[in-house]
Amino acid sequence: DRIVSLSKTAESSDETVSALPHPDDVRKQDVGTDGATHKLKLGSSVSMDHLGPIIINTDGTTRRIANWNEMTESEQANAIRLISARNKRRIADLLKQRE
């Protein structure tokens, strides 16, 4: 692969700093879980259900369940039910804090 390098100014040092790859060498791709390449058009949407539900933390940050793909269907269904109810409560609490 061809790498474009930028030299630091003479006053800082003579080291070479690696820059981004040359645009001709960059492969534009979004690889899905099945290894296939997906091209997206502006305004299109992508399903990320395979990543599991988004969990709202008490401080408003979000996260996902790390082992979602290892859970059984019944465990996933139960988790979605519990997380949905908890997320609703947490969102309501966060909105009250903003007032």
Would you give an account of this structure?
The chain has 99 residues and is of the alpha+beta class. Residues 1-12 and 28-32 have low confidence and may be disordered. The radius of gyration is 22 Å and the shape is extended. A two-stranded antiparallel sheet has the order 1-2. It is 26% helix and 17% strand. The protein contains one helix and four strands.
Architecture blueprint of SSEs:
Layout: E1 3-7, E2 16-21, E3 54-56, E4 62-64, H1 73-98
Biggest sheet: strands side by side, in what order?
1-2
Number of helical segments with 4 or more residues: 1
Low-confidence stretches: 1-12, 28-32
* Shape, per Cα inertia axes: extended
What kind of sheet is the major sheet? 2 strands, antiparallel
Strand content: 15-25%
> What is the chain-wise order of helices and strands?
EEEEH
Give a quick summary of the entry.
With 99 residues, the chain is an alpha+beta fold. It contains one helix and four strands; from the N terminus they run E-E-E-E-H. The relative contact order is 0.10.
Features:
4 strands; alpha+beta; two-stranded antiparallel sheet; 99 residues; 1 helix
